[in-house]
């Protein structure tokens, strides 16, 4: 079964050139600091991960959990 990804997220990725992590974070109305706190890392460390076009599976899984989505929804 395919994971649902809202049009707003997809459009942000293509129209704005955002990574899937940033598009989801913005869609969910969260700040980098809020997500970083959920992950137990600093905001600058999260900003670096958010900007990365490729994340290791373990990191992607943790970020997905922090955002309340499935890892498959980030694997775009």
Fold and architecture overview:
This protein starts with 6 loop residues before the first helix and ends with a helix. It has a single domain (7-74), classed as Orthogonal Bundle (434 Repressor (Amino-terminal Domain)), CATH 1.10.260.40. It is mainly α and 76 residues long. The chain has 6 helices and no strands. The mean pLDDT is 94. It has helices spanning 7-15, 20-27, 32-39, 43-51, 57-67, 71-74.
Backbone CA Rg: 11 Å
CATH class: Mainly Alpha
CATH architecture: Orthogonal Bundle
Question: Could you tell me the mean pLDDT?
Answer: 94
User: What's the helical proportion of residues?
Assistant: 55-70%
* Secondary structure: number of strands: 0
Main β-sheet, in a few words? none
Number of helices: 6
The run of helices and strands is HHHHHH
């Amino acid at each position: 079964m395919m994971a649902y990804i809202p049009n707003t997220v997809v459009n942000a990725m293509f129209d704005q050139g955002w990574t899937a992590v940033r598009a989801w974070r913005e869609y969910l109305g969260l700040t980098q600091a809020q997500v970083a706190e959920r992950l137990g890392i600093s905001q600058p460390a999260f900003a670096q991960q958010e900007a990365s076009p490729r994340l290791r599976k373990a990191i992607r899984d943790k970020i997905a959990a922090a955002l309340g989505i499935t890892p498959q929804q980030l694997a775009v």
